[in-house]
Amino acid sequence: MEKRKYSIAEIAQICGVSKATVSRVINNSPSGVGEKTRERVLQTIEKMNYRPNALARSVATSRSGMVGLILPDVSNFFYPKIIRGVTDYMDTKGYSVIVANSDYNPEQEAKQLLNMIDKRVDGIILCSGVSNREFLTQFRNYHVPLGLVGRTFDSSLSDTGIGGDNVLGGYKSASYLLRGGNRRVVYVEGNPGTSGSRQRMEGYCKAHREFGLPVREELTLHGDYSVEYGREAVDFLLDRGIAFDAIMTGSDLIAIGIVSQLQARGIQVPEEVEVIGFDNIELTTVFNPHLSTVSKPHYDMAQHVARQLLRVIEGKPVPLAHTVVQPRLVLRETTKKRDYDREYL
Amino acid sequence: MEKRKYSIAEIAQICGVSKATVSRVINNSPSGVGEKTRERVLQTIEKMNYRPNALARSVATSRSGMVGLILPDVSNFFYPKIIRGVTDYMDTKGYSVIVANSDYNPEQEAKQLLNMIDKRVDGIILCSGVSNREFLTQFRNYHVPLGLVGRTFDSSLSDTGIGGDNVLGGYKSASYLLRGGNRRVVYVEGNPGTSGSRQRMEGYCKAHREFGLPVREELTLHGDYSVEYGREAVDFLLDRGIAFDAIMTGSDLIAIGIVSQLQARGIQVPEEVEVIGFDNIELTTVFNPHLSTVSKPHYDMAQHVARQLLRVIEGKPVPLAHTVVQPRLVLRETTKKRDYDREYL
DNA sequence: TAAAGATAAGAAACCGGTTACTCAGATCAT
DNA sequence: ATGATCTGAGTAACCGGTTTCTTATCTTTA
Fold first, then answer.
1. How many interchain CB pairs under 8 A, A with B?
2. Percent of chain B at pLDDT above 70?
3. Which residues pair with B274 in a beta bridge?
4. Residue B35: enclosing H or E segment and its boundaries?
5. Domains in chain A, CATH or no CATH each
6. How far apart are CA A44 and CA A24, in angstroms?
């Protein structure tokens, strides 16, 4: 029917009114347009398939109606729920979401952040960021509302944030295993450099301190957050003849890799080696045996930070801007059953 | 340090040059700026932390550097790889990706499409779209480059597209099961209304025709693409006393739900019932038993359509704009081992 | 040394919107 | 009937960029 996109000026001309009037109709401003004029303009808009250019509007109003979401790796099964939480909320509020991967790489993360600044997003949600304090501090100079999820930092670095207490998570995991009598508890982490990874380590150390046990260097492994790395970690330990009784991990994916490789190499889980995952993604109950893990409500956390971020953007007060959620230990089939299990709920 | 975002005019004023000159520096246009001026401007930009407003540039150039990606449900484990494929490619070309969910809902899909039009994305990738022909035809009036992935349609509806041959996929799956001697092959689909779902059904029917068997209404089930629905489907069949020998599905998630529920209800897989998934997501080899499934290279397909879409956007020729990839049957542990298995590679 | 050509940089129009300000005509109270 | 108030609608400036056109200055060449 028509051949290109119309502009507000053309629509105005077609119905013989001014741009201002068309603009008023589009934004249905309460005043300023008579009933018949409004009707006429609406009809023209309809007939011409006119769609106002949101970009132009953005530069005029300096609000883009877009937010950025940066996460390490979309295809890691942990993140889709986060995306969903954010997009679901943003959708209800009419915001679009630009998604980008950082690949656990500070330079990449920085690049994506800048890119979003350039696109003038109204705010950014950064998930398990790997940037260091200095960079984030400097980044604040751009004055873009920033929400952090999964990484807890002192409040000056972001406007709002929610994260699990990773220290506690690591502590619960390690101390449960130690209390069960395991003396050689391995800690298999994902990508190094994330704050979550360091914090879990802290909890792991704390537990060992309480049990009066030393933290042995060779029982701490770092790789990435994949099933594949879980498998490799097992091979690494076994092939080097490093003895161990239990494994605590930085993610469920790693744990799944570990369990499946232990089984493949003839080691019984949990009888010979107990394993605890981290995150409680949906997979944990699909995989056999069901994974014991440390749980946080990701979807809800994502929605929460989305909501908070919009409050920041809209200049509303943001109660409890920085929140830490207590992770729960979920004991299923990769740990032994014990009478005190219910204490850990 | 500074208090707000600078505009090109302010930068120009600060170094005592015109907007035009600053603009030339920013876009490092080959001509028109002397060495010392360029240097001075660059320093000011650096010092002021100036970042050009991509939105304003977009309205001036009418190219936004953004593309839209619409998929049914980000949190379905099938889609993250698709997102990754698209974002990875777009990243290398400097495009941002706006992601939105359609929830298998035509209205929602239409809403997201329009939203992206408003945001003036340079192109849209629509994944397993549920819109009907009429809507898509009408949509073409907006003249936004459109790439389809996972849905094959006649070429007038999109500029480029890639999809698995779902008819063939359904056919391979069903005929393998029938050839193995199974007479009551159930077909458990995900959300109805998707083209993929209809096409697999077509393949399923074709196989039955070839084997001279009737397609029985009660052996076709529809729900959604979740593990949970797989479980429900098994309960449904068992509780109604509907006998069956094998199950072909619309997704691996469904298949996983089916297998795990069959086992839970004491039915051996594959000895008593064989199951074939669809898609070959990573999970298939993490889950025990490893899932037999129909495989397509999702990540590559996503990258491919991203590449093609950019060619359309940039006005370059697009060879093989519409591609159909042949799915492979991957036989693992939820089907019985047979001597002719290798024929199906 | 003067004419021709190249180059650096500015002025101004433009992209597609929003919005403060203005004003003519209608409505109202007196 | 008259002045005050309201209201519909237009004008023009603005948002932050790009780009065409023009001009002043500097080289080059004859």
1. 139
2. 98
3. B246
4. helix B35-48
5. 8-52 (1.10.260.40), 65-164+297-326 (3.40.50.2300), 166-295+329-344 (3.40.50.2300)
6. 14
For chain A, the average pLDDT equals 93
**pLDDT for A2:** 47
Q: Do B87 and A100 touch (CB under 8 A)?
A: yes
What does the alpha-carbon distance between residue B78 and residue B198 come to, in Å, rounded to a whole number? 18
Q: What is the per-residue pLDDT for B288?
A: 85
Under the banding of pLDDT at 50, 70 and 90, the label for residue B102 is very high
Environment class of residue A252 by beta-carbon count within 10 Å: exposed (0-12), middle (13-18) or buried (19+)? Answer: buried
**Is the model's pLDDT at B250 over the cut of 90?**
yes
Question: In angstroms, rounded to a whole number, what is the distance separating the alpha carbons of residues B309 and B126?
Answer: 11
Q: How far apart are the first and last CA of chain B?
A: 63
State how far the alpha carbon of B141 is from the alpha carbons of A109, B109, B146, B310, in Å: 38, 17, 12, 19
Give the pairing type, strands B96-101 and B66-71: parallel
Residue B299 DSSP symbol = H
CB contact, 8 Å: A227 with chain B?
yes
- Specify the pLDDT at position A1: 45
Mean pLDDT of the region A34-45: 92
Rounded to whole angstroms, the Cα distance separating A41 from A23 reads: 10
Q: Is the CB of A198 under 7 A from strand C?
A: no
Q: CA-to-CA distance for B312 and B321, rounded, in angstroms?
A: 9
Residue of B nearest to A96 (CA): B98
